[in-house]
Design a protein that fits this description.
Oligomer: single chain
Helix content: 25-40%
Distance between the termini: 9 Å
Strand order of the largest sheet: 1-5-4-3-2-6-7
Structural class: alpha+beta
Shape: globular
Number of strands: 7
Radius of gyration: 16 Å
Amino acid sequence: MKKISVEENEIANILNSKRNKSIIDIYKENDFHGLGILIDESLDVYKYEWKISFNKNSNSFNTSNSLYLGTKKIDLKKIEKYLKDDLNIVGNNYRDDLDKEDRSAEIIRLEGCIGEFQNNELYDKIKEKVEELLKEDL
């Protein structure tokens, strides 16, 4: 993946311009770190993250943001098959994990399947499959 931005406003603008037509938009965060993956309608894969870290030189906390673009496109048929057949995204009931320390959001838009979830296990499974298909760690 190649880094395309560290500017919070630019990252927000790029992601927001792609969100309405994205195929997959998943995100997981806690109080100190967030990691999201967005697959747009062109099958490009974006990874975005933020984290809070302590800067011992300034004796303060800093927030850093990053947006990356994958070097390969995702194979739509393989990710669709995984979501529909293996995870049964249409038929299974994925309960919301609203009381967990790690919070997630998963938005899936496939032909015949549109869903919004808040399930950490579902996030992890989708993230792992995207990594496997891209042959890259996210």
